[in-house]
Design goal:
The chain contains seven helices and 14 strands. The chain is α/β, with parallel strands linked by helices. The strands form two sheets. Strands 1-3-2-4-7-5-6-8-14-13-10 form an eleven-stranded mixed beta sheet, with helices on both faces. Strands 9-11-12 form a three-stranded antiparallel beta sheet, with no helix packed on it. The longest helix is centred in the middle third of the chain and has 15 residues, at 161-175. The two termini are 37 Å apart.
Length: 320
């Protein structure tokens, strides 16, 4: 697919009968194309009449970051899925995307955001917080979001992203990073799903598998169809959720401090950790060990100093 870096391509199908408004996004990170391929397949099926949009509205953005997509890398000028907020003085390419993408998200009620990951592993889904009126991420659609998470076809659900990120910001400030550094702001943790919730909707991020896994586009495709079925936007068969479903919560983010910081082995997301297990060594020889039993998530062997290196997760008290 030829992609212009000067506009976003949006496929929108509006039914004549009122109903939910769903938006599906792909390639928020340019090298994560499973969602793009899944969206393209569904759009073709709608256009030739194999899927009929009968209620509400379905919008599809196959490539949210055209520059990163064209460069075949995660980012264009910065990470689009951090500090995703509209602004009056855009400075970077992703700021200009945000000024188009954020209003588009706000027009909808539900977001299915499709991603993939670097290391080998099974697909999983990220959901938002429990219903709350707190200052960080107030929310009132926990039950609906849980239903969506349950029906996208995976067996692992992870929560706690923004809470863990905010705790990481506090640790960065305690280390005395440059005042005003972008990753010292809790808003830097706001991505597509967090912005969607801030506008009164609900959302999940589906990590469809490893970037180059040939099965990942099929995971995205099936999830889109199930979202359309669940919301009644298309008359498709709704499959039962996978069983059992494991629910985890992100407890803490660990940053890379220096170029010499290194993992002691090649970790992949959801590798199990025992309490006290050695995970990494700092450049000065300091050991980084697991404070308690759990799992490592999103280990980034190429993380820049001052940025998130990996997350620690435990079993969540929340179920679906």
């Amino acid at each position: 697919m030829t992609v212009s870096t000067r506009h976003l391509r949006v496929h929108r199908f509006a039914a004549l009968e009122a109903g939910p408004r769903l938006v599906v996004t792909g390639a928020v990170h340019g090298n994560e194309t499973a969602g793009t391929r899944g969206i393209e397949r569904v759009v073709r099926e709608i256009e030739r009449g194999d899927i009929d949009i009968v209620r509400g509205m379905a919008s599809f953005v196959p490539v949210c970051n055209p520059l990163a997509y064209r460069l075949q890398r995660r980012t264009g000028e910065r990470n689009l899925n951090r500090r995703l907020l509209p602004g009056t003085e855009p400075k970077e390419y992703e700021d200009r995307i945000a000024n188009v993408l954020c209003p588009l998200l706000a027009e909808h009620e539900v977001l299915l955001d499709l991603h993939s990951f670097r290391s080998p592993g099974l697909p999983f889904v990220l959901r938002g917080p429990a219903d709350n009126a707190g200052p960080l991420e107030p929310f009132a659609h926990e039950a609906a979001e849980a239903r969506l998470a349950a029906h996208v076809g995976v067996q692992r659900v992870v929560d706690g992203w923004l809470d863990a990120y905010a705790r990481g910001v506090a640790e960065r400030r305690a280390r005395g990073l440059t005042p005003g550094a972008v990753n010292e702001d809790p808003a830097y943790g706001i991505g597509t799903t967090e912005y969607m919730r801030s506008q009164g909707g609900y959302a999940v991020t589906l990590e469809c598998g490893q970037h180059d896994d040939p099965a990942a586009p099929g995971v995205a495709y099936q999830a889109i169809r199930q979202a359309l079925a669940l919301l009644g936007i298309a008359e498709l068969a709704l499959e039962k959720p996978a069983s059992p479903i494991e629910c985890l919560t992100l407890a803490r983010v660990i940053d890379r401090h220096a170029e010499g910081d290194r993992f002691v082995k090649t970790w992949t997301s959801f590798d199990a950790l025992t309490q006290g297990e050695l995970i990494a060594l700092r450049a000065d020889g300091t050991e980084v060990r697991a404070p308690e039993a759990g799992y490592i998530v999103f280990p980034d062997h190429a993380a820049l100093p001052g940025h998130e290196w990996f997350y620690l997760a435990q079993h969540s008290r929340r179920t679906l």
